[in-house]
Amino acid sequence: MKRIVNVIALVMLLNFSACADQKEIITFMQLPQAAQDVVTQNFNQSDISYVTKERDWTVEYEVRFTNGTELEFDSDGAVKKVDCKGAAVPEALLPAEVATYVKTNFPGAFVKEWGTDDWGYKAELNNGLDLKFDKSYRFQRIDD
Description:
This protein is an alpha+beta fold. 26% of the residues lie in helices and 34% in strands. The chain folds into 2 domains: 22-83, Inhibitor of vertebrate lysozyme, Ivy (3-Layer(aba) Sandwich); 86-144, Inhibitor of vertebrate lysozyme, Ivy (3-Layer(aba) Sandwich). It has a 9-stranded antiparallel sheet with strand order 1-2-3-4-5-6-7-8-9, covered by helices on one side. The model has no long low-confidence stretch (mean pLDDT 89).
């Protein structure tokens, strides 16, 4: 009996592993509305290279543009990460506190990557600095 239970548990584990981490190409219109709004308001929709939907333990979306820019969204369409590959992240996608902090403390620099971190948020500047912010967008420290 114990052996049968172990075999069933193993089969279920393998089945769950097969279901996890599924990535598929989808259309722009299959993104959540919030994600569509972010793209249309801040980027040129005609420059989209592809859109993916990934099912792991949660659903996440990625939009990749022909210039290499990547956007990541959670299942509701909220922005998780913006990576503009050396260009400036559109200011409308940055919290006002972060944009003000960067302008005040690093004149001439701009945010080229913005996103969530394990405990807050991370902004990577074009000068190579990584700035860490808490969940209230208060500056915490600089990482190298």
